[in-house]
Amino acid sequence: MKVGFGIPNNYGVEDPNDLITLAVTAESLGFNSVWVREHLFHSAYVAERLGDKPYHDALTVLIAIAVATKTVRLGTSVLVLPWHEPARLGKMIATLDQLSYGRVDFGIGVATTRDEFENLGVEFTTRGKRTDDMLDALQALWTQETPEHDGPFYRYSGLKFSPKTYQKPYPPILVGGSSPAAHRRTARIGDGWHTLRQTPAQFAAGREKINALTEAAGRDPAKLHYSITVPMKFTGKPPSAPVQDRTALTGTDDDIVDTMRAYRDAGLDEIIVSVSTGDVAEHDNAMRHFMTDIWPKL
Fold this sequence. Notes:
Elements: E1 2-6, H1 16-29, E2 33-36, H2 45-50, H3 58-68, E3 73-76, E4 79-80, H4 86-99, E5 104-109, H5 114-120, H6 127-143, E6 149-150, E7 155-156, E8 173-176, H7 180-189, E9 192-196, H8 200-216, E10 225-234, E11 249-251, H9 253-265, E12 270-274, H10 280-294
Parallel strand pairs: 1-2, 1-12, 2-3, 3-5, 4-5, 5-8, 8-9, 9-10, 10-11, 10-12
Antiparallel strand pairs: 6-7
């Protein structure tokens, strides 16, 4: 199992340069990947958490991280596809993948913040169908010299598109969400499943369903990559939930190790740890403590 770190572009860090510094530190400490999240407006729970503090753009932050690092992978946890247009997003992801020499992990999702969809003028109830169409459009843009795509929302023909992605055929598409639709989307087109807020037991059940759906779709489930983002907090007190029912890495160092082992035994390929604060020093301390005192025990 590999480990990544969540960069707090979503926690109101005032100076975005501090986010880049955290990513450089994560790379130096041995984290496999760094991940950013996406919201365009201070919607619902985002507004409650941030107030008037900034939520920095996911891809802009990753571009800066790409330039400042050499090996760490660059993940989106997740980009909300219905908020984007395929050609523009496809060009941005391809450029980032070229800039980083093939380090992009393309985590995608549909989101549940209805007020944000309304503010963007995007139909909330068709977000799943729009996402499926967009994924097919992106595949065409990234793999065909002159992309041909005729879907219900997006259509392209007759014009060349560049650049193509550095990774071939394109960066891994990691489908977010835990709904049946997300499971089906992973099985149909995904290179992996990237989920949130799942216990080890829930993750194992979801993984089993996706494997079965993938095999039924004529694809090899052994090629899928399974990852999850979980919050981490060093409380020093034993968690109240049994290890299979935990949704966070909390408690003593040994408690956190036990929870991570439960995820690993459930078939997880990569765990992304995140710290729920905008305090940059706390993130730095958490990374160092994790890699020094916890990760070696795995």
